UniProtKB/TrEMBL annotation:
<dbReference type="InterPro" id="IPR006000">
    <property type="entry name" value="Xylulokinase"/>
</dbReference>
<comment type="function">
    <text>Catalyzes the phosphorylation of D-xylulose to D-xylulose 5-phosphate.</text>
</comment>
<dbReference type="GO" id="GO:0005524">
    <property type="term" value="F:ATP binding"/>
</dbReference>
<protein>
    <recommendedName>
        <fullName>Xylulose kinase</fullName>
        <ecNumber>2.7.1.17</ecNumber>
    </recommendedName>
</protein>
<keyword id="KW-0067">ATP-binding</keyword>
<dbReference type="GO" id="GO:0004856">
    <property type="term" value="F:D-xylulokinase activity"/>
</dbReference>
<dbReference type="InterPro" id="IPR000577">
    <property type="entry name" value="Carb_kinase_FGGY"/>
</dbReference>
<feature type="active site" description="Proton acceptor">
    <location>
        <position position="267"/>
    </location>
</feature>
<feature type="site" description="Important for activity">
    <location>
        <position position="34"/>
    </location>
</feature>
<feature type="domain" description="Carbohydrate kinase FGGY N-terminal">
    <location>
        <begin position="30"/>
        <end position="274"/>
    </location>
</feature>
<keyword id="KW-0808">Transferase</keyword>
<dbReference type="Pfam" id="PF00370">
    <property type="entry name" value="FGGY_N"/>
</dbReference>
<dbReference type="GO" id="GO:0005998">
    <property type="term" value="P:xylulose catabolic process"/>
</dbReference>
<keyword id="KW-0547">Nucleotide-binding</keyword>
<keyword id="KW-0859">Xylose metabolism</keyword>
<dbReference type="InterPro" id="IPR018484">
    <property type="entry name" value="FGGY_N"/>
</dbReference>
<dbReference type="InterPro" id="IPR043129">
    <property type="entry name" value="ATPase_NBD"/>
</dbReference>
Length: 518
């Protein structure tokens, strides 16, 4: 694999030298698949970057044998993947075109452990499993907090794959002794599709085993943790072809044997590609259950305090930084379920639209599940503050919308501290769908925000990667340039800007106060 640390276009150039697969005049489709937590979704995209069809298959709910544990059966992902692929192909209109390439994305950080025969040894500990804080503490003591950030660009967090492996090593040594292959969820599905052990650099960044700066496995971290490098799959760039559909998988899915499969990316990297967040200065703010601010960077930008993630991007030769609010859309959902039963979000936000910016002093700290960026505090809890007799139900709704935006602004504040450029902000998820939340975000961030004509998510981004890897598009920039369209740009309201500048300063006082309350 070419050294990509200096030249962002080197992978594309190397690929062009090896093959000329362009087929502009031949109709073709590309398939992207997202192995999520709740289900697997497959989409079919044509050579113009248009969505043709899509289908999903639900997973069994993840198991929680003890508080803080979360496990899923990898075989259930494989079942759902087969079903989603077949349904997506069946839903595509006639005449069907050949699927020229496939890309995969999915939930990050999960630990899938296989024996020497490729059999699953135990259920996967998935991303939201938080049992591994002792293993995080051990890693920081063994390697050193600052040294670990130097080696991997990130501190140890319970989410990361390595900490889950260390838990199995300590608590289930008989299982650990049988491990011969380690992979993440979507990479297990690729193994079942192709028989190949492979991972992309973006997904690998979230294992805590990757030297993110040099886009390769970290020998030093693997050795310190007692993880043989032979267990780790080969690392590829996201648009790089790494495998082909096997005869067996072809019979189970309806795909043609030998169809190229690109490495793909974790859900955040693939979603960023699907939104066109590719080059330095481009930023997305996505509000789902959690909230993520994602920025592409020319170099791996390390925060010495570990307050945000620094990963390889799905774009060859590019990196990204990412801040996370644990309870973003979850805050609004909690408010609705708890205090607005029977109302819908539209009526709630319509009433909140009549409340002035700043909610007349009412504030919401969205720490229902603790907080990641910038506090790294799983124990802090949420609160409304400064309630008075002037506040109505609509004030509480607006305060939640503003409190989530303030929390995401904490990541933008961190970007400014570390010199990370922000030239435009694209909104995604539920926070992009309501006009009030879009307006609030523009005012809080102090940036023009953009909304896309259609946001298709990570599966769409991986379908575009497949088009690049098979030579249909010259680069991800070219693919996104054809496939992605901005529907609306929202400028910050001057009155909102003033209200939110002072409001954010007041809001920042909440965390230090709440930190003292356990």
């Amino acid at each position: 694999m070419p050294d990509l640390s200096d030249a962002p276009q080197s992978w594309y150039a190397a690929c062009a030298e090896k093959t000329d697969l362009r087929k502009e005049c031949t109709p073709m489709w590309f398939l992207g698949m997202d192995v999520g937590t709740g289900g697997t979704r497959a989409v079919v995209v044509d050579g113009d970057g248009r969505l043709i069809s899509g289908a999903a298959s639900e997973h069994a709910p993840f198991r929680t044998p003890h508080p803080g544990w979360a496990e899923q059966d990898p075989e259930d992902w494989w079942r759902a993947a087969q079903e989603a692929i077949k349904l997506a192909l069946a839903a595509a209109p006639e005449p069907h075109q050949p699927v020229a390439g496939i890309g995969l994305t999915g939930q990050m950080h999960g630990a899938v452990m296989l024996d020497q025969n490729g059999a699953v040894l135990r259920p996967s500990l998935i991303w939201c499993d938080t049992r591994t804080q002792p293993e995080c503490d051990w890693l920081h003591e063994k390697i050193g907090y600052e040294k670990l950030i130097e080696l991997t660009c990130n501190p140890a967090l319970p989410n990361f794959t390595l900490t889950k492996l260390l838990w199995v090593k300590k608590h289930e040594p008989e299982i650990f002794a049988k491990i011969r292959h380690i992979m993440c969820p979507k990479d297990y599905v690729r193994y079942r599709l192709t028989g190949e052990f492979a991972i992309d650099v973006q997904e690998a960044s979230g294992t805590l085993l990757l030297d993110v700066t040099h886009r390769r496995w970290s020998k030093e971290v693997a050795e310190a943790a007692g993880i043989p490098e032979s267990w780790l799959p080969k690392v590829y760039e996201s648009p790089e072809v790494c495998a082909r559909i096997s005869e067996t998988a072809a019979g189970l899915t309806g795909l043609a044997p030998g169809t190229p499969v690109v490495a793909g990316a974790g859900d955040q990297g693939a979603g960023a590609v699907g939104m066109g967040i590719l080059q330095p200065g481009s930023v997305s703010a996505t509000i789902g259950t959690s909230g993520v601010v994602f920025a592409a960077t020319a170099q791996p930008t390390k925060d010495p305090k570990g307050r945000m993630h620094t990963f390889c991007h799905a774009v060859p030769g590019v990196w990204h930084v990412m801040g996370v609010t644990q309870s973003a859309g979850l805050s609004l959902n909690w408010l609705k379920q708890t205090f607005f039963a029977g109302q819908d979000y539209d009526s709630m936000t319509a009433a909140a639209g009549n409340i002035p910016a700043g909610s007349e002093g009412l504030m919401w700290a969205p720490y229902l599940l603790g907080e990641r960026t910038p506090h790294l505090d799983p124990q802090v809890r949420a609160a409304f503050a400064c309630i008075s007799t002037v506040h109505t139900a609509a004030h509480f709704t607006r305060a939640v919308l503003e409190g989530v935006a303030y929390s995401l602004q904490d990541t933008f504040t961190l970007f400014a501290e570390l010199g990370i450029p922000v030239s435009a902000v694209r909104l995604g998820g539920g926070g992009a769908r309501g006009p009030l939340w879009r307006k609030i975000q523009a005012g809080v961030y102090g940036q023009t925000v953009e909304v896309l004509t259609a946001e298709e998510g990570g599966a769409f981004g991986c379908a575009l990667m497949a088009g690049v890897g098979t030579g249909h598009w010259a680069s991800l920039d070219a693919a996104c340039g054809q496939a992605i369209e901005v529907a609306q740009r929202i400028e910050p309201d001057p009155i909102d800007l003033a209200a939110y500048k002072s409001g954010y300063a007041e809001w920042r006082k909440l965390y230090p106060a709440l930190k003292t309350l356990r």
